[in-house]
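Moderator note: this is an archived Q&A kept for reference. The question asked for a predicted structure of one protein chain; the sequence and the answer are reproduced below.
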Amino acid sequence: MSLSIAEMIGRFRRPEYTGENRCMPCTALNAVITGVLAITVGVVSTGAGAVVLLAGAAAIYFRGYLIPGTPTITQRYFPTWALRLFGKEPLAEPNALDTDGGVTAGTNDRGENPLADYEHVGELLADAGIVEDCADEDDLCLTPAFEEAWWDRIERFRDDDAAIERLAAVLDVDPEGVAVAGTDPFEVEIDGVTAGRWSSRAAFLADLGAEPTVAEWLPIWDELDQRQSGELLASLRAFLQRCPDCDGELTSIEDVTKTCCSGEYVNVSRDCTECGASVFNGSYR
């Protein structure tokens, strides 16, 4: 039985690489290759060059790429700046201190690299006595002393007046101009202008309590810039077992995502079973 044109196209199409899943770096690379091939063939025969151009364009449109293995090529060899041109943020190398689960490696805004001696964030936190090997599993856990100090501040800052007073001191502003509002997301406003946003009040309380606590325990804290310190505070939320807002139990959810531009990675979230607050979100390869 003969196939209709629609059925033939359907068999040819690769939905995992087209539509919303289309990888623009892959498309750009294949478009350049197709153009070069068409021009090369066109030197010999204009008609043949036109055929190559049309066939290549059809393959890219319906399949996402012309050359087999293009997703792997872009994933491995496209430079960071090129991926960013297409709105793709490449994942960190496994040994980097990176994302919501770690601290961005490299120099701070003063041109220094306070993280040069650490291969990953676990080493940094363990060296400061903030985390240690868990007693009952192959993982890292907060040390009892740090956890107690952190929770003391979290519980204190559950009072909005105490939270605002601390925020004003950190930001060096008048407490009268500081306000906190919302649940998901949770926002901090200064003189009516949004100055900070968290996924939940629980995440905000965790960071607000962690900031002065980490400053006491981590010798290089003052050497980190705002970006690095913010990422470090966020990464610490992954170690929490209870919700900073309602004391509910936190559960972890992992979801594997595949992308033709950055490979396969795992999204991790820690959410409260009682109040539904999102406390931590991160990803790793």
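Archived answer notes: The two ends are 46 Å apart (CA to CA).
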